[in-house]
């Protein structure tokens, strides 16, 4: 493991993080590039070796985290903040190196409950992992950043 790269990533994340979507500490630590093309959330990142498990591949918890972020950020982008009610993740192939792409999209959008999916692929479009999830939209009064007095 490149310990100096891990330390730099941690320090950079601490220095640049802000309490908002796309800029929070974990997104900064993982080096996520987040955009919203075609009604989807696209996350592009290059896994660093300090995120790898002892078998030399990207840890499954990191994969699940990035997929959760892709779905949560899409929900927030389209209709506001929400909570993950449940999530199922399927790991198809080990991620060992190279840029990966995570695409979150709606399966069905509702006013209070929505169903989303996320697909993680390599640069050639080969599927590496898939996830589906159920999300509950937060009411505007419960969403982060809303003053309690305004409720």
From TrEMBL:
Against CDD domains, the record matches this protein to: PaaI_thioesterase (cd03443)
Looking up SUPFAM superfamilies in the UniProt record yields: Thioesterase/thiol ester dehydrase-isomerase
Pfam short name (any one): 4HBT
Print the keywords alphabetically: Hydrolase
Highest taxon, organism lineage: Bacteria
Q: Which residue numbers delimit the Thioesterase domain? A: 55-126
InterPro entries on file = ACOT13 (IPR039298), HotDog_dom_sf (IPR029069), PAAI_dom (IPR003736), Thioestr_dom (IPR006683)
Please report which protein family the annotation says this sequence is part of. Belongs to the thioesterase PaaI family.
The family database entries (NCBIfam families) matched by this protein are listed as: unchar_dom_1
**Known PANTHER family for this protein?**
ACYL-COENZYME A THIOESTERASE 13, THIOESTERASE SUPERFAMILY MEMBER-RELATED
According to UniProt, the name of this protein is: Thioesterase domain-containing protein
- Organism, per UniProt? Bordetella bronchiseptica 00-P-2796
**Upper taxonomic classification of the species?**
Bacteria, Pseudomonadati, Pseudomonadota, Betaproteobacteria, Burkholderiales
